[in-house]
Design brief:
It is a single chain. By secondary structure, the protein is mainly alpha-helical. It has 2 domains: 28-274, no CATH class; 295-533, no CATH class. It is built from 23 helices and 2 strands. It has a two-stranded antiparallel ribbon with strand order 1-2. Helix 8 (186-217) crosses helix 14 and helix 16 (334-347) crosses helix 17 (349-368). It is globular and about 80 Å long. The relative contact order is 0.08.
Length: 534
């Protein structure tokens, strides 16, 4: 039975490579190989980053005879990435798998089910840790005298540290399960966590070399502090660098923690796996409901659909998170920006006049990455007949599908425009023109998105991701926004000697308003015809 469960878990673990989730059928050998190659490229890309960091630090650590410090640092980075990458896998694999009830209804010991689940978590954690530990070990071997112990122990360390990783992720996964089941809007939380994960990875990648140089310059002082204040790190580093007693002590610690975790979880696995943390029911309160207009009701429906789908949020609304962050970062780094720009303005005086237009185009470009309106028709899927059967003018339906795109992107663009205007010391009139210009730009892109979404609508999808990611209309909408942004930013350099920035932005706003009116006419005619023909 254990062998059958293990085989099932391994097949489930590799299903994203073997099976096409759009059709549920097995992928061809060529496609499976391509997926494997794609993940290998990603693995080596991450590994190369850590190798560069390790090479800088290993050279200094070996020269000061502080090999243990190098492995202590490599170990803590490996532990952090392993925990951070594996915690959500632990949540979905151990606490919320879809087949828990089915397996528990069979004559199978709960401890056996848990052991197999934990093995799956162990393998995934091992992949995350290998992306750090293997390249950092190679960097060490390139700088130190190679001995059998210095080769064997770092490899064994990777497998032993993983016991500690899965123990921590089991606790954190349990917390995630509790939090996720008490939240009403899981899509927004998932989106924020995903964006946060991407931001942390980018930040760490950007700071790797700086961190390595900082550690190299203060390696003796930092190593002394670790040895006296954080003794477990010293034990770990000393053991991996070749001290067998310390290595055995660290191994005993990791295995003991894992054994305790597995024992506690096995004692309460059935409760953990079957408990449903239902949301608190609202008590009925009689009250008078304000009547909404048809347009408001349709817009609320579109907004609800957008915020309730993490795939929709992340793929069509990522710039809603990026734009405010760009503005905040610019304000925080205001002094650095002004210093750098001062030097650039001295060499290129024309750049100072063009900067408001460049920043406006940058905000438009970032907002143009959002294509909220493009997949909105396709996402109706087989329920499109409900909208078409209602006594509502088709144009009202299409107008409502544009509003979330315009409203949300305009708010995010306005916040970014204000913060960037402050960071770059723009005058108030220019900031106002930026806000108006980006808002009208969002109106134009919304209308382009809705027309392309109608032309290339996909209604027979089995997963929302197909309607969102694999829609030609969405790709063309992104390209259209890019071209429009390049025109806005590039045209100024042809007339910058004849027009001031204020006049140029007014002209751009006027042209965009005219474009929006023309596109609106197309929607009222051809757009309505396309919708009725679906």
């Amino acid at each position: 039975m254990f062998k059958a469960l293990l085989k099932k878990q391994l097949i489930e673990l590799s299903s994203f490579i073997i099976l096409d989730r759009k059709t549920g059928k097995k992928r061809t050998t060529g496609k499976s190989v391509m997926y494997i190659l794609l993940y290998l490229v990603l693995f080596f890309t991450i590994g190369f980053t850590f190798y560069g960091m390790g090479a800088t630090l290993a050279e200094v650590a070996v020269s000061f005879d502080l090999d243990w410090f190098y492995f202590a640092f490599a170990g803590i980075i490996t532990l952090m990435l392993g925990v951070f990458g594996d915690v959500f896998n632990t949540y979905s694999t151990v606490y919320r798998p879809k087949d828990n009830d089915l397996l528990l209804s069979m004559p199978i010991k709960p401890s056996m089910i848990l052991t197999v689940r934990m093995f799956s978590v162990y393998l995934i954690g091992l992949l995350y840790e290998a992306a750090v530990m293997i390249p950092m070990s190679i960097a060490y071997w390139m700088n130190a005298e190679i001995t059998p112990l210095r080769i064997i122990l770092p490899i064994l360390f990777l497998f032993i540290l993983n016991f500690l990783v899965i123990s921590i992720t089991c606790v954190l996964g349990w917390i995630v399960a509790i939090v996720a089941n008490k939240l009403k809007n899981k899509a927004i939380v998932t989106s924020v966590m995903t964006v946060g994960f991407i931001a942390i990875i980018y930040f760490l990648s950007y700071q790797m070399q700086n961190l390595a140089y900082t550690l190299s310059e203060n390696i003796q002082g930092i190593s002394s502090s670790i040895q006296t204040s954080v003794y477990p790190l010293y034990v770990m580093g000393k053991g991996v660098s070749g001290d067998i007693p310390f290595f055995l002590l660290f191994t005993l610690f990791c295995v003991l923690i894992a054994a305790i975790t597995l024992y506690v979880m096995s004692r309460s696995f059935i409760k953990l796996a079957t408990t449903s943390h239902s949301e608190k029911k609202n008590k009925y309160k009689e009250q008078t409901t304000k009547q909404n207009s048809i347009q408001n009701a349709l817009v609320k429906k579109e907004l609800l659909k957008f915020r309730s789908s993490s795939a929709y949020l992340l793929n069509s609304g990522l710039s809603l998170f990026i734009l405010p962050v760009l503005g905040i970062v610019a304000v925080v780094m205001k002094s650095t920006i002004n210093t750098t720009l001062g030097q650039a303005y001295a060499e290129l005086p024309a750049l100072q006049n063009a900067m408001p237009v460049i920043i406006t185009a940058a905000v438009c470009l970032t907002a143009g990455m959002d294509t909220i309106a493009a997949p909105s028709v396709s996402l109706e899927g087989k329920n499109l007949w409900i909208l078409k059967s209602m006594p509502i003018p088709t144009y009202e339906i299409l107008l409502a599908k544009q509003q979330p795109h315009v409203i949300l992107n305009s708010i995010a663009s306005a916040v970014a425009s204000i913060l960037l205007g402050i960071a770059f010391n723009f005058d108030l009139p220019i900031i106002i023109f930026m806000i108006v210009c980006t808002s009208v730009f969002n109106m134009v892109t919304a209308k382009i998105c809705i027309l392309l979404g109608l032309k290339f609508a996909i209604l027979s999808w089995t997963m929302e991701a197909i309607a969102i990611k694999q829609n030609i209309g969405t790709m063309l909408a992104l390209f259209a926004a890019l071209v429009l942004t390049l025109i806005i930013g590039g045209a100024y350099f042809a007339v910058m000697n004849k027009l001031t920035v204020n006049i140029y932005l007014i002209i751009v706003i006027a042209v965009l308003v005219l474009a929006a009116r023309l596109l609106d006419r197309v929607i009222k005619t051809k757009g309505v015809a396309l919708f009725n023909a679906l």
